[in-house]
Amino acid sequence: MYKRQQLVESAVHGIFLLLGLVTVGCVLLITLYLVVSGIPAIREIGFVDFLFGDTWASTGEEPKFGILPFLLTSIYGTAGAVLFGVPIGFLTSVYLAKMAPAKVRSVLESAVSLLAGIPSVVYGLVGMLVLVPGIRKLFHVPDGAGLLAAIVVLAVMILPSIIKVSVTALEAVPKEYEEASLALGATPVETWFRVSVPAARSGIAAAVVLGVGRAIGEAMAVMMVSGNAPNMPGLFESVRFLTTAVASEMAYSSGLQREALFSIALVLCFFVLLINAIMNAFLKRNREG
After folding, report:
1. What's the chain look like in SS3?
2. Out of 14, 29, 129, 219, which residue is the most buried by the measure of CB atoms under 10 Å away?
3. Does the structure show a pLDDT above 80 at 285?
């Protein structure tokens, strides 16, 4: 019987290891494919001209492939979405995990789950029909489709990821921590923000990383509300993100234009990896401190 249990455990361990290796292999294959497909265009265009050129005219008589407008737009758009979405998502998660009555929590968690399940095209459609006209009327601009509309849509879209993961992290904090804090005379609010939140820091940071990844990788909803024009970023200007640059031209691209789109995808992949590396380094430094 003992040998049989050992055999079953070894088989399960092997299956889990295999699945983990498949996941890592898929990531490596995608990265390798992007490198092989994207490097030739960067070599032909020139690294500086490609990364820091401020004009994208891939179908012009003299094609230009500068992606600086896309890069800055993605940075500003992601930063804006995090600036608006993270505080709202974080405070909502604290309320759900620590304060909300059972019935209220049930309703709010159902709403968050529903928000997570809405397709991105629906976000884009609502943004295009409601948000864009609202921005046009509120700020008296010629067209409400621009960076501001994209930031608002992305901020709403990252909320479910931040809330769900943060709630799980806060609930995983041992109750003894909070009981000890309350016994020392701290108020419940002080306990939540000075004990529970620091203890759940890694999980909350993971939630932020997931939110940032969702914001960077979104294409369809952003394309519908941002105007999708290759301009330098401005709050009320029509702009194009790295993701929408690839999605909008890949269907009819060929030659150097197609290779340049793969180069954009390579830059986007590197951008996401860089953010994850910075966040992991930040968390490691805090744990050592």
Report:
1. CHHHHHHHHHHHHHHHHHHHHHHHHHHHHHHHHHHHHHHHHHHHHCHHHHHHCCCEECCCCCCEECCHHHHHHHHHHHHHHHHHHHHHHHHHHHHHHHHCCHHHHHHHHHHHHHHHHCCHHHHHHHHHHHHHHHHHHHHCCCCCCCHHHHHHHHHHHHHHHHHHHHHHHHHCCCHHHHHHHHHCCCCHHHHHHHHHHHHCHHHHHHHHHHHHHHHHHCCHHHHHHCECCCCCCCCCCCECCHHHHHHHHHHHCCHHHHHHHHHHHHHHHHHHHHHHHHHHHHHHHHHHC
2. 219
3. no
